[in-house]
Design brief:
With about 260 residues, this protein is α/β, with parallel strands linked by helices. The protein has nine helices and ten strands. The longest helix has 18 residues. The chain starts with a strand and ends with a helix. The structure holds 2-amino-2-deoxy-6-O-phosphono-alpha-D-glucopyranose.
């Protein structure tokens, strides 16, 4: 796991967008794993700017989103389908046939999950998986105590997740769908590269557990310690509970990839 600590949230997002851009430029037919949530909105804005001002070309890109609420169809404004259309897909030249978000309105959720997993494999696997971190340590919607070996499936969301995401549902946790389809932790671990972005003081404790704590199903993000190529970008607030700060700073000054990334700021 490589750790990059940026001075603030804006620079963390700038570096994350740079890593995504680097991937698309290096391999125009990249398969990207995409995430939703507040952290990602500004990253997608930066990618849209890159597309508009520097011709960043999404025409050969394929995308697979991590998750979707069960019961919300693509036209529902609170769905992740809608979020992706609003924040990225409608604003860049990605082909609609090449974007994939689990269908939360599928009548057979189990079949939908299986097909989603098969579609990822058929696309050749995910080159770069973008990830946020839930305040309870979830990645995608793999909630605490999910098997670290799980694949794409339906899951019941944790109470803490309903509370964390209530803001997008008029502030009422009871209005947040309690079930979702999510890519599994094992699916995420198979991506060639994982890019996690964590910002803000509310994520400091869970970021430290994920990075420095034991690998445990109680903190699904900690499974990324097993990922052979995982970059975690944090701002100073989210990094404030890390104990191994000296070692991380040393790496940031001496690892050529981290040094090059810091140079893009
Ligand atoms: C949701 C998504 C996660 C995301 C998390 C963090 O629950 N399913 O994939 O990482 O939110 O969101 P935020 O960036 O809003 O804190």
């Amino acid at each position: 796991m490589k750790i990059l600590i940026c001075p603030d949230a804006a620079s963390a997002r700038t570096v994350a967008a740079h890593v995504l851009k680097r991937q698309i430029v290096k391999k125009p037919a990249s398969v990207l794993g995409l995430a939703t949530g507040r952290t990602m909105e500004a990253i997608y804005k930066l990618l849209v700017t890159e597309h508009r001002e520097s011709n960043l070309d999404f025409s050969s890109v394929t995308t697979f989103n991590l998750d979707e609420y069960i019961g919300l169809d693509a036209t529902n404004e609170q769905s992740y389908h809608y979020y992706m259309q609003e924040n990225l897909f409608s604003k860049v030249n990605v082909s609609p046939n090449s974007t994939h978000v689990p269908n939360g309105a599928a009548s057979d959720v189990e079949a939908e999950a299986k097909n989603y997993e098969a579609a990822i494999a058929q696309a050749g696997g995910i080159d770069l998986q973008l990830l946020g971190l839930g305040q309870n340590g979830h990645i995608g919607f793999n909630e605490p105590l999910s098997s670290l070996n799980c694949r794409t499936r339906a899951i019941t969301l944790a109470q803490t997740t309903l509370e964390q995401n209530a803001e997008m549902f008029g502030g009422n946790p009871d209005s947040v769908p309690s079930r979702a389809i999510t890519m599994g932790t094992a699916t995420i671990l198979e991506s060639h590269m994982a890019l996690m972005v964590v910002t803000g003081p509310s994520k400091a404790q869970i970021a430290a557990q994920m990075i420095e704590g034991p690998v445990t199903a109680a903190v699904p993000g900690s499974a990324l310690q097993y990922h052979p190529s995982c970059l975690v970008i944090l701002d100073e607030d989210a990094a404030s509970a890390l104990v191994a700060r000296e070692a991380i700073d040393w790496q940031m000054r001496h690892d050529p990839e981290l040094v090059a990334l810091t140079d893009c700021l």
